[in-house]
Model the fold of this input.
Amino acid sequence: MVRQATIDDLELIVPLFDAYRQFYRQPPDLELARSFLLDRFRHHESVIFLALNSGGAAVGFTQLYPSFSSASARRIYILNDLFVTPEARRQKVGEALLQAAAEWGRRMGAVRLTLSTALDNATAQALYESNGWKRDQVFCSYSLPIEP
Done:
């Protein structure tokens, strides 16, 4: 089952978010994960969908950040995070999370969802493409690291 998470789900999401960060080579830090997510909930800065198995255990999440497309003058959502626990992979959990995100975007009148993934994350790329996501062939992405 996939549902929109609330602040009451914080303790279910924290270990998933921490594992997601570790996947991207960040050190484990449950307190950092808790603080970051709590700020997102308190300030209504993201939408999180939570996947639960039949026993009610949290097995995955996706987090969307709102943004805008100036060219289309409409809202977009950045699907910034998607994580499924290793034991729940290949059970359509990722697909269910993607579908929930797409439905949310439709309900909110978004023109599109967008995401980025590591160039070597072929598993994620296959999941996205099999669910209708298109690899950008027009634009190059750049980022500017800002040091504190």
Notes: The radius of gyration is 15 Å. Helices lie at 10-23, 30-42, 93-107, 122-130. The chain has one domain: 2-130. Residues 93-107 form the longest helix (15 residues).
